[in-house]
Amino acid sequence: MEFLSLAALGILIVISPGADFVLVLKNSLNQGRQAGIWTAAGVSAAICVHIGYSMLGISYLISQNEVLFNLVRYCGAAYLIYIGVKSIITAKADVGSLTESHKNQSNRQHFIQGFLCNVLNPKTMLFFLSIFSQVIALDTGSSHTALMYGIYMIALHGLWFSIVAVVFTSPVFQKQLLKMKKKLNQACGVGLVSFGVMLAAK
To answer: pTM to 2 decimals?
Structure first.
């Protein structure tokens, strides 16, 4: 029953709107489905990092070191504010197709954006520290269960954000999204800046 509760908690955490969701939506809107999926892959790859240091206990040490923790926090906040401001400044309303715009940005850039957005978020770090302390406590005999739960979380992030990219670039949504492209870009930008400011303020 405990593992089912943790699995359900993982789903709730992943689907709750946050900086990762906004970034995947922004890249899908501006550069198309492939860009959104590569951003989702970056987010998923960042989860591997969180899982790795959570299982090793490094995240606990970071959370107990105020200087180091604040360094991670401010770096994450600065990055979110940077991509948010960039989105607001470059917002465009007149675009012919979601999949044809901004092809000058590579898949690698989108992957790195997703990776940095997630890996520099100390809230994600503390979440994985707390949840893995529960998983490991439930299975003190080995790290097998914790590893399986980690794989589950990696797959869950990749799957959910890929679905977001696919859904918001589908023909059903595309026509309506194109009409609101500039406002959505600005809204995503404001959202990212807001997440960055809140991260720095807390």
So the answer is: 0.77
